[in-house]
Structures are given as C-alpha cells and as structure tokens.
Amino acid sequence: QVQLVESGGGLVQAGGSLRLSCAASGRTFSTYPMGWFRQAPGKEREFVAISYWSRGGTNYADSVKGRFTISRDNAKNMVYLQMNSLQPEDTAVYYCHAAADGIQYWGQGTQVTVSS
C-alpha cells in the first residue's frame, strides 16, 4: 500500500520559517515527480512546488517563488518544502503529491498557520 505522510506543519508568526517533510512508502518515487499543493479554507487546492526526478528540475507557484524551496532525498524516498518569510496568506493545509504510472498519490495533509 502506497502512503505519503507529511510532517512539520504548525503555527508560526509572519516572517518565520517552517520545513515540511513527506515520507513515501510502498513504492519508490525516485524517477517520478513529487511536489506540494495547498488548500486554504474556502478555496480550491492549488499547486505550490514540484521536483522532477531528473537533473534536479523544480518549478514553483509565483506566489511562493523566492521564499519556498523544494528538495528531495531519493535514497530516503522523501521530499521536503522549506518555507521562509511566511505570510498569513500562506495559511493552508499542505499536501504532498506524487504521480507515477498514471496514478496520483496524496498525503493526508499538514496544517500550516501563519499569524500576523
């Protein structure tokens, strides 16, 4: 059974930092993209960042460029999201995502709350 388990969320003041982690189990994602989405209350789930397995390629939503950094450790089957300069508008449930062989995998989400 494939599982993605996020950790590292919490409450932080504006301007602070958090690091989210996502541990994958049940299959390896070393040659597949892994990324992060988020969903704020009353809003649709939105893309945040993605890490492509090859050549270290990454992509970010415009709203987080320059503040968030995605990284991965293929040996550990993990992906991370370093979030700096957090703002209240970053408050959301953050979901780990992976896609392999036409199947979408999602974690259960971790809450990030940024107070002003």
The whole-angstrom Rg is 13 Å
Fraction in helix: under 10%
Contiguous uncertain segments of 5+ residues: none
**Residue share in β-strands:** over 45%
Would you report the number of β strands? 11
Distance between the termini: 40 Å
- Number of alpha- plus pi-helical segments: 0
Q: Give the SSE string.
A: EEEEEEEEEEE
Mean pLDDT: 95
Rough outline:
globular
Decide which structural class fits the backbone.
mainly beta
Major beta sheet, specifics? 7 strands, mixed
Describe the structure using short key phrases.
single chain; 116 residues; mainly beta; four-stranded antiparallel sheet; 54% strand
Folded structure, characterized:
With 116 residues, this protein is mostly beta strands. It has no helices and eleven strands. The chain has strands spanning 3-7, 10-13, 18-25, 34-39, 46-51, 58-60, 68-73, 78-83, 92-100, 103-106, 110-115. The strands form two sheets. Strands 2, 4, 5, 6, 9, 10 and 11 form a seven-stranded mixed beta sheet that branches. Strand 5 and strand 6 form a beta hairpin.
